[in-house]
Design a protein that fits this description.
By secondary structure, this protein is α+β, with helices and mostly antiparallel strands. It is about 55% helix and about 10% strand. The protein has 5 helices and 2 strands. It has helices spanning about 1-20, 25, 30-40, 50-55, 60-75; strands at about 75-80, 90-95. It has a two-stranded antiparallel sheet with strand order 1-2. Helix 3 crosses helix 5 (about 60-75). The radius of gyration is 15 Å and the shape is globular. The two termini are about 15 Å apart.
């Protein structure tokens, strides 16, 4: 089963490279870094502050929001509001099938 998943991921990555619209689309690894971090913290989810830390606090907020929006539209992640003592916290979780 692991071998099949590995082949599937390799094939998907190859397709992304072959059919990318431009070089910038290939070089932009911010969505991949964010998705990796979100997947590693699947049970607790990640706050925007956590995702900013994943980027070494060097990425602009609008770039992080754009990457998260792209991931959400692709169905790879989902945003959830979690109740707290104050205002609700926004957390990002991987989709179960992504």
């Amino acid at each position: 089963m692991r071998a099949a998943v590995t082949v599937w991921r390799y094939s998907a990555a190859t397709c992304r490279l072959v059919f990318a619209k431009d070089v910038a689309q290939i070089a932009d690894d911010l969505p991949n870094r964010l998705l990796g971090a979100i997947r590693r913290n699947a049970s607790a989810g990640l706050r925007l502050t956590d995702l900013h830390a994943v980027c070494g606090r060097k990425e602009r907020a609008d770039a992080i929001h754009a990457a998260l929006t792209a991931l959400e539209q692709a169905g790879a992640v989902e945003r959830r509001e979690v109740a707290t003592a104050g205002r609700p916290a926004e957390r990002w979780y991987p989709r179960a099938w992504a």
